[in-house]
Amino acid sequence: MIETILNNLALILGTTLMYSTPLIYTSLGGVLSENSGVINIGLEGMMVIGAFIGAAIGYYVGNPWIAFIGAGIAGGLFGLLHAFACVTFGANQVVSGIAINFLGAGIALFLSRMFFEGATMTKSIPLDNKMPRPLNGVFPDGSFLNIIFDNQYATVYLAFFMVLLIWFFMYKTKYGLRLRSVGEHPTAADTLGINVMRIRYFAVIMSGVFAGFGGAAMSLAIVSNFRPTLISGHGFIALAAMIFGKWKPQGALLACLLFGGAQGLAVFLGQFDFEISSQLISMLPYVITIVVLIGFVGKSAAPSADGIPYEKESKY
Amino acid sequence: MKLTLKELRKKLYIFATEKTIGFTLISIFLGLVVGAIFLAAAGFNPFQAYGIILRGIFSKPSYISYTIVRATPLILTGLSIAFAFKTGLFNIGAEGQYIIGAVVATAAGYFLHLPLLIHIPVVIISAVLAAGIWGGLAGYFKAKFGVHEVISTIMLNWIALYFQNFLIYTKGFQKPGGETSHSIQPTANMMILKTWKQSEAGREWLLQHPFWKDLLRTPMNWGFLIAVLMAVLVWFILNKTALGYRLRAVGFNKFAAEYGGINVNKNMIISMFIAGGLAGLAGALQVVGVSHKVTLIAAMEGYGFDGIAVALIANSSALGCILAGLLFGALKYGGAKIQPFMQAPSEVINIVIGSIVFFIAIPKLIKVILTRKNKKGGIK
Question: Does B354 share its domain with B216?
Answer without folding.
Answer: no
